[in-house]
Amino acid sequence: MFRIFLLASVASAARVLHVPLTPPLTASRPLDPALTSLSFDPAFWVEFWGNETHPNAFSMQMLKNVADRTGVYPVIRPGGVTQDSSTYDPAGGSPVRTTDNVTGAIYRTTWGPAFYESFAAFPGGTRFTVPLNFGNDSLAIALAEAIAAVRHVKDWEERIFAFELGNEAGNYKATQRNLSTWGPAAYVVEWKNWTAAINAALPAPLRTRWWAGSDGITPAAVTVALQTEDLIARGLDRPPIVREFSQHMYAYSSCTLTSAAAATVPNIQNHTNITAFVGLLAPKVVAAQKAGSDLVVGEFNSVSCSGKPNVTDIFGQALWVIDTTLYAASINVSRVHIHQGATLVSQSNSQINIPGVNGTPGFSTYNLWYPVDSPLRGRRRANPSYVSQLFIAEAVSKSKTSRLLALEPPAGVSPDLFAAYTVYDGEVPRRIAVINWQTFNRTMGKAGAAATSVSLDISAVLPRRGRATLKRLTAPGNDETDSDFVTWAGQAWTNGTARGKEVLEAVSDGKIEIRGSEAVLVFVN
Ligand SMILES: *[C@@H]1O[C@H](CO)[C@@H](O)[C@H](O)[C@H]1NC(C)=O
Ligand SMILES: *[C@@H]1O[C@H](CO)[C@@H](O)[C@H](O)[C@H]1NC(C)=O
Ligand SMILES: *[C@@H]1O[C@H](CO)[C@@H](O)[C@H](O)[C@H]1NC(C)=O
Ligand SMILES: *[C@@H]1O[C@H](CO)[C@@H](O)[C@H](O)[C@H]1NC(C)=O
Ligand SMILES: *[C@@H]1O[C@H](CO)[C@@H](O)[C@H](O)[C@H]1NC(C)=O
Ligand SMILES: *[C@@H]1O[C@H](CO)[C@@H](O)[C@H](O)[C@H]1NC(C)=O
Ligand SMILES: *[C@@H]1O[C@H](CO)[C@@H](O)[C@H](O)[C@H]1NC(C)=O
Ligand SMILES: *[C@@H]1O[C@H](CO)[C@@H](O)[C@H](O)[C@H]1NC(C)=O
Ligand SMILES: *[C@@H]1O[C@H](CO)[C@@H](O)[C@H](O)[C@H]1NC(C)=O
Ligand SMILES: *[C@@H]1O[C@H](CO)[C@@H](O)[C@H](O)[C@H]1NC(C)=O
Ligand SMILES: *[C@@H]1O[C@H](CO)[C@@H](O)[C@H](O)[C@H]1NC(C)=O
What we know:
Blueprint: E1 2-5, E2 15-16, E3 36-40, H1 45-49, H2 57-70, E4 76-78, E5 86-88, E6 96-99, E7 106-111, H3 113-117, E8 128-132, H4 139-152, H5 156-159, E9 160-165, H6 184-199, E10 210-216, H7 228-233, E11 242-249, E12 252-253, H8 257-262, H9 265-268, H10 271-278, H11 282-290, E13 295-300, E14 303-304, H12 315-330, E15 336-340, E16 369-370, E17 381-382, H13 387-396, E18 402-406, E19 418-425, E20 428-436, H14 445-452, E21 454-457, E22 468-474, E23 487-488, E24 503-507, E25 511-514, E26 518-524
Parallel strand pairs: 1-24, 2-21, 3-4, 3-15, 5-7, 8-9, 9-10, 10-11, 11-13, 12-14, 13-15
Antiparallel strand pairs: 6-7, 16-17, 18-19, 19-20, 20-26, 21-25, 22-23, 22-24, 22-26
Bound molecules: 2-acetamido-2-deoxy-beta-D-glucopyranose (NAG) (11 copies).
Protein name: Beta-glucuronidase C-terminal domain-containing protein
Pfam family, one: Glyco_hydro_79C
Domain Beta-glucuronidase C-terminal: 420-521
């Protein structure tokens, strides 16, 4: 690694970023080192993870890079739409999807013991949620899955973090429930009834490990059915068996042509929009904590229905993941599980994404990585957004006492296009994350870079003569789609491991400069 010094020519007007020197009352709870966790649609489990004897080494490396920085592995949620059409077959193997031969829609995902056995291929200490099918309305199917998990997950007491009954039950179709009676009231009655029946078959340590809710908070009317506050008010957690309440979070979608038209870079990459949407979680966090539980985002991404090409597979998506995750942490969301998968087709008849040829996966363009080569997306590789995980992991760190605070933008800086957070370890600010949301695209040149740059003065938090170390997350532009040109502290991560020398910038005068479409993490010495 080597150090470079910022030139003294850092733009004239450095604006003061105010960072409280001790954590105020509004600082977050201690951060879970697994803050940035993951979710995978079970139908594509084999592509992402392989099996117990032949794990996907690339995906495993992608996890390890995060764990190296936080000291813990992300919590893995195999879950999503295909969970609600899954079946356990004792004679089956790894998850196999059955698709409609005309539309290509997945209507069944079947797995046997090998699915649960594959959990043992992950490093020790990795924890999982277990997906149970609620959509089919057959307790027998869900019960068989739960019992099989206990039988086939090695070290189940450590590895099984939670059972999750159903995915986005507020979205169920007429084939899944009688929609004239389905809603929060019916959900709570059925959820309590099924979890009680399944608990009777589970070993005692697992009986209080349920996830509840798992429905969306999108403003769209179709997914507002199951909200944490409402479920708690209806007595869902009496007796208390819920480990965590879960809500899903997608502000935009490509499920229909109309919704896809609104999923644009200027709409998505606006800090005011991000915080308004993520802020919908605040009362749910409070409700969950009052009930003695916690709130997690069990599934989220920027654009539902598998993303939008040239919007979710660009460098700017990395900045979006960071801002969304850190803002959620600032309002005491415990963990966020960023969703990974491939096109399902079944979600609407006019979605813009398609599967690959001959049943090959049409991997979602919001994925952090493409786990295998595929005809539609090309070779296995990291997407430009992957580096967000390294940034967040280093902001959170291995400390179990980190607390986070969202900072106000400096005077004269647009709150729409700027985000900053500080992380305290104990009583002092140790790390400062800044995102400059002013768009800098690849073709904007030097003048564009200068016009979109922000200079900040953080000398007040740097007691030792303005000294600090800084890592930069950058790319030739917000619209960069080639991960080879996306760097975290000078290194590219396209193929799973770092290429290039690590660059630690030395801040010596308390001034930092951030170009448009860049983020930095300052390490206060
Ligand atoms: C988050 O939790 C901490 C306590 O751990 C509390 O002091 C703080 O006010 C909470 N933040 C919000 C936004 O509620
Ligand atoms: C595990 O995956 C390998 C490679 O795809 C395959 O050859 C093997 O049969 C699989 N094992 C099981 C138990 O499915
Ligand atoms: C699709 O499946 C149906 C029922 O299994 C079968 O009759 C039909 O020939 C199949 N069509 C194609 C194009 O494979
Ligand atoms: C429920 O499962 C049964 C048995 O696998 C299957 O025939 C049926 O189509 C499923 N129903 C739904 C709504 O998924
Ligand atoms: C759905 O529930 C309503 C109200 O109880 C009932 O009238 C209707 O017959 C039910 N529909 C089906 C398909 O069971
Ligand atoms: C669940 O509901 C069914 C049918 O209403 C009932 O027979 C069963 O006893 C209930 N089970 C539990 C554990 O409450
Ligand atoms: C987000 O930002 C844009 C500006 O591009 C604004 O027009 C839009 O209405 C905002 N809201 C949402 C929900 O996208
Ligand atoms: C960001 O979104 C807000 C609405 O939430 C809008 O008022 C504002 O103009 C947008 N800012 C930019 C720079 O587009
Ligand atoms: C993405 O952008 C590239 C380059 O601007 C363009 O060639 C391609 O058609 C775009 N893809 C889609 C799906 O819009
Ligand atoms: C940058 O490119 C995106 C497409 O990736 C476009 O939506 C946006 O308007 C461009 N912004 C500027 C400032 O040129
Ligand atoms: C990743 O591998 C590809 C194919 O071998 C290569 O072209 C690319 O330069 C590599 N990128 C990095 C950052 O190592």
